[in-house]
Structure formats: C-alpha cells, structure tokens
Amino acid sequence: MPRVVLGHAVPRLKHHTEKTISAHLQQLADADLIILYEVNGDRYLQYNQFDEHQSGLHKDREAPSAYPPPPAKVRSKSGVGPEKVPLNIIESNIRESKVVEAWNSTNIRNLKEGESKIREKTISKIGAVLKEYPLEVIIKAIENYGKVVHHPELYFFSYKWELCEFLQRGLRKFMDEAQPFENFKIKNGVGRGRREPDSPQVGANVKAEHGPDYWADVRRLKAEGKEGQALTDALAKKAKEGKG
Asked: Can you give the residue range of the structural domain that contains 19?
C-alpha cells in the first residue's frame, strides 16, 4: 500500500520513499484520521468520517465496494471508534505532524519513528509552541533555518539542532521578523565576529592569527566534509604552514 500511495501522491519527490510514506500513514492512523487494516495478506486504508463530508452522496445507490471493509475489531486509539474522536484533538495532531514533516524535509537531524522517548518529548514541545505561535510561522522558521545551515558559503551559522532543541533555542532566531538571512550572512568574507557553536574558536584577532583567507578556508574545508575537530585541525595546520 505505501508503494501505491507513493506512486499516486508524490511520485517525483525523491526524499519520499515507501518507508517515509508508511510512517506518514501511521501518523494519520495515530491521529484517527484513517484506519489501516489487513485482509487476506493485503493492506488497506479507510478514511474516517468520509461519508459525512460528501455532499449529495447516496450510498443506497452505489455499487458494492470492490474492497473489503475493515474488520469489526479494528478501532481507533481511544477504542471508542473514529467517529467519536473530538475534532480539536484531530486538528492538534495534524498540526504537530505538519511541524515534524517540515522539520524532516530540511534533512538536518530528522525526528525518527523509533526514538520513542525523544519523539514524545518533541511532540510535547511542539504542542506547547503551537499555543504561542501560528503553525505557518513555525514552519517558515524551520525552512529559514534549513536554508541557512545548508548554505555555508553564504551564512556562518551551521549548528545542527534536533527539533526539540531548535524549538527551544532557535525558533525565534529564525523567524522572518528576526531577519535570519541578514543576521547570519557572511559579509566581506567574514562573519559578525560571533562564535559558531560547532566551529573553531574565533577571536577578534582572527585575521592576524589565521590569515585573511580564514573564512574562505572554512567554507572550502566544510565543502570537503570536514566538521568539528577535523575542521579545527585542518585550519590549525594551514595556519602553521602559512607562518612557516
């Protein structure tokens, strides 16, 4: 079934696979928006409350469905049946899922299905943040963060947060009103003199110590895949060679 959904819904989006589609379907099922079930080895899904939203539908005139209905034992998470799940709970779960989807689309430090404790803490944090800011503002901040981190040739900020940490420490920094593209932009080959959390320590005398090409070297070495201590060592080696 994930393969069918993938082929019909997002056939050209390379970052989606059968695995990610399966995870998204499970999120919808967890939110009581769909029922996932299996009959004779084949997997199916059914939309909850579908009939209620079909204006002019006459089920008595329809031909019998070609697909088997879900078994009677299949129930929602709450066990009371999907039609009795409060609408505000469904809407809340949808918004939380959209935040997670937006975050994972940045491909920085994805929130994975198997990390139950981390996921539970993160979902709780998302719920708290959604009470303070509109969904659109949060998603835009996430997109801004992704653009900055993935373009080290333009921006000096490169720290890779997990989603929960981003919501706590970075959300406001990357909202449009905070002007992140201007604040983190590399100007004249040099950052704003701020220290990046995962970069070598940079003092006010950076040019005198490392030479005028320091930031160009940082960008080049990062493009080669060097990060953290490996980046620090490579820069130190180059500085030593320059003095020699």
From this structure: 1-54+64-84
Is 138 within the bounds of a domain?
Answer: no
The string of DSSP letters for 192-203 reads -SPPPTTS----
Q: Degrees (nearest 5) of the Cα angle 195, 197, 200? A: 65
Chain CA centroid to CA 64, Å: 41
How would you write the pLDDT of the chain (244 residues) with one tens digit per residue? 667 776 666 677 767 787 888 888 888 888 778 888 887 778 888 877 666 666 666 666 666 677 777 765 554 444 444 444 444 444 557 788 889 889 989 988 888 766 667 878 888 899 899 889 999 999 999 999 999 999 988 898 888 999 999 999 999 999 998 999 998 888 765 554 444 444 444 444 444 555 667 667 777 777 777 776 777 778 778 777 765 5
Claim to verify: residue 239 and residue 151 sit in the same structural domain: yes
Q: Count how many domains the chain has.
A: 2
Question: Within a domain: residue 213?
Answer: yes
Considering the entire predicted model, what is its pTM? 0.46
